[in-house]
Amino acid sequence: MADPLSRVFSALADPTRRDIVARLAVADATVNELAAPYDVTVQAVSKHLRVLEDAGLVSRSREAQRRPVHLEAEVFDLMTKWIERYRRQAEERYRRLDDVLRSMPDADPPPPEENPR
Question: What is the dotted CATH code of the domain comprising 4-71?
Answer without folding.
Answer: 1.10.10.10
